[in-house]
Automatic annotation (TrEMBL):
Protein name as annotated: Planctomycete cytochrome C
Domain DUF1549: 164-379
Highest taxon listed in the record's lineage: Bacteria
Domain Cytochrome C Planctomycete-type positions: 40-98
Matches recorded under Pfam families: PSCyt1, PSCyt2, PSD1
Domain DUF1553: start-end pairs: 489-737
Amino acid sequence: MVTPVWSAKKPSGKSVHAKMDPKQRAFFENKIRPVLVKKCYSCHSSQAEELGGKLRMDTRDGMRVGGESGPAFVEGRPNESLLIQALRYDGLEMPPNEPLPESVISDFVTWVKMGVPDPRVAHPLIAKKPTEENTEANPALWSFQPVSDPVIPAVQREEWCYDPIDQFILSRIESKDLRPTEDATPATLVRRLHFDLIGLPPTVEQVESFVADYQRRGQRAVAHLVDELLASPHFGERWGRHWLDVARYGESNGNDGLGRNPTFPHVWRYRDYVIQALNADVPYDRFLTEQIAGDLLPATNPEEKDRLLVATGFLAIGSKPAKAMNVNFHMDVVNDQIDVISTGVMGLSVACARCHDHKHDPIPTRDYYAMAGIFLSTETMWGFAANQPLTAPETPLHILKSKNVYIHPPESGVKPVIDKHTLSRKKKPKNIYPPGTPLAMGVREKKKPVDCKINIKGESKKLGPSVPRGFLSACKIEQPPQITAKSSGRLQLAEWLTSADHPQTSRVMVNRIWLHLFGQALVRTPDDFGVYGERPTHPQLLDHLATRFRSEGWSIKQFIRSIVLSRTYQLSSFCDEDILDFDPENRFHYRHNRRRLDAESLRDSILAVSGQLNWEPGRGSAIANVDELVNKASNLHQPSNHRSIYLCLLRHSEPPELSAFDLPDSTKPVGKRNETTLPTQSLFLINSSFLIDQAQHFAKDILAMSKRDERDRVIQVYRSALNRAPSDSELQRSLTLLKNVDTELKEEISQDAIRQVTVWATLCQALLSTNEFRYVD
């Protein structure tokens, strides 16, 4: 019998868009294509009765060639593009009946500035069921195939392998008649493990202790260190940040298109839930279930009930559009929830099927609205939205009832700067929640669940037939849970996602974990397992890992432990030149990848090395009592020496210490951050008041060392900052730098003690700004 999975017919010819940046693809699918379908295709497509202006807008090439007036755009230059001029009603007027909202026009301007990334093809892709002749796994839709448990491959050098992972990797390397590089040194490995598992550098003493233990016990020393780090409370702070990227975590709504950015004062509780769940190693299937349907799970005590309610913030914390002039507001909220489930958990862009059948993946519009019914039957609770008339409408919040729940002090000392031009407050209901009431964002069941009608072209006022609540038809599992008439279907959705034979959930998660440990994923588009996502570099290894993850109880910690104890993970990042030439992208894992610290780890490392890091968990948030618009929010970012995950993370107003280093905007799920190298990053490291201040603290600690001469102090600076001693030439250059700076400052600063701090702070800041400090081998 033929397994009813789907396959897709791809267009012939070179695929220019197949390598498109995933964020660009998502921007087009979520912001541009729906508008083109709704507003342009009736006159400018192959289906139009009369092709307006001889301009096709339903294909990429059609817009590039243009119509009677010429090409629709000039890439990168919106002011010179006919498309933008028409949308602005500048000479041309499109659409002719009424102009698009300013926020939509702004999206098109952004699209042109991006270079008009467009994944469409001249002919639509055809999704079809396989026949007897094409039942083998179709590479276009590999992720819809059942997860297999492949045989561990035989290798020539079995003694090299620590784990079955190594055999999958080594078999590919041996097939090319090559060898992996050497093992990383113990000093390199301890630094790598500390950053990967807890996001902080090791101390001088920790490096020395591990190196000595490794020389005595080898791999047993590695296992001991790994177990210590996995048990650390800082593990959840490191890996919680990875999940918060996927969950699109932000403490304000973000610019809603009208210049308004209301705060979410209670979202920090979800942040704390994620950290605690990962520290407790809550199994991933349970972790997902709590976030999707925690309000429907039994609880043995009030503390557990509160925790489960807070977990459902996963579905509530997304950025909301402006309510004003938005007839699709509630369906936009549903779309965000579908997007975080599909992209975040399954690696599929289901939200693309809102207006039409998915153009390349086997996701019909009916499937989209089958899932939409689940969330339309769910009440989403985000609070007051700053109590403003044009923002998202007010909703209730969960009231937490356990005796031990943390209540943020009523006086935060923070007064936001309000943009008076956008301020128009509604009358806030008095005493709806008594002062000090612990509140949380989240979801709960509506009293009367409903199925969703298809919104024709994505318009909530143009309704088609009703679709029973359900799941994706192309993801086949043997016994899908049945949604009852009295439930939204969220609990059944969680059961479906975490069923033993779901093809995407375990694959997507093990791929995300591999990405964070190696700097590149086995599927290099971690948020796109669809037709135009990349294929796995090691498909059998991916399925081995997915099978193993499930069979070992979905334990994230155990899975990470298995990977970091493999020989593959412990390889050096250096290799012979011939290997580098053969595989410059390291797709075969001959070596480890050198990686730059993310924004949070960089800031936390600077604080740790300077001795100023507050190792205790942060409590609450700077905006825990601020329910306002925060268009000008710089003063909400209060000084803090806690880890970066506890900083106030407002959408479109990031903490200044982090903003230069590729933070995601938190409006969409992000599995892999961008990594840019820009002049502003170097300028930040040179001029940042934060780094200058920390360098001074670092210098004071070095100068406080008793009975040490300058040489000893320079060596200590290097060991503290870079986990190694300086070379002879580095030592000499550092001493020369100190002498020269001291000479230059003598006339300016006469007091020796003050001048010495400045002199040594110069060296400290220089080392904290180096690539070696910012990168991990």
